[in-house]
Amino acid sequence: MQNEKLRIMIEISMAVALSTILSFITLWRMPMGGSVNLVMLPIFIMAFRNGARAGILTGILYGAVRLMLGAYVVHPAQFLLDYPIAYGFIGIAGFFKIFTEKNQLNIINFIQAFSIAALGVFTSHLLSGVIFFADSAPAGQNPWVYSALYNITHVLPTIIITAIVIALISKRPEIVFLSYRENQS
């Protein structure tokens, strides 16, 4: 049991470090925060490999690391919504078992996992946009519409790209997704 906890702590640390590195490799960056990259990939892998608890913790810790690396912050509550809470939502994907007993990708669970995680991330960013960035909306535009359009332009492509990468590497789940204990059996 002690070794299992240590293994998970080490994997979480590695996933946070890898997410941090991936945050510097960006396809495009939005003017007021948000970007398209593979930063979510290690968090999803932790969630699928070790469950929702480890995935959520990985996301929250990565969000906290973003503060140290110069996150775009206008208010402490905005920081929480845009970073630890948003990235923590990715970890809920770990509630879904995306592989069958024969290590085949379960498409239904895969789509559900990504959809629920994406909805959580998007909602967290949406609320942050409405509450803290409503004054950035063009004159006469509803802040909800502005925030939704702004955030969908980076959340949706990031989720889609991450889902494609995970679908591709899921062809060999024993390499990435199965925990150490499962690989020993």
From TrEMBL:
Q: Which UniProt keywords apply?
A: Membrane, Transmembrane, Transmembrane helix
Q: What domain of life does the UniProt record list for this protein's source?
A: Bacteria
InterPro entries, sorted = Thia_Transptr_ThiT
Q: Which GO terms describe its cellular component?
A: plasma membrane
Where is the chain membrane-spanning? 7-25, 31-48, 80-99, 111-134, 146-169
Question: One MF term in GO for this entry?
Answer: thiamine transmembrane transporter activity
Pfam families documented for this protein? Thia_YuaJ (PF09515)
The name of this protein is: Energy-coupled thiamine transporter ThiT
For this protein's source organism, the top of the classification is:
Bacteria, Bacillati, Bacillota, Clostridia, Halanaerobiales
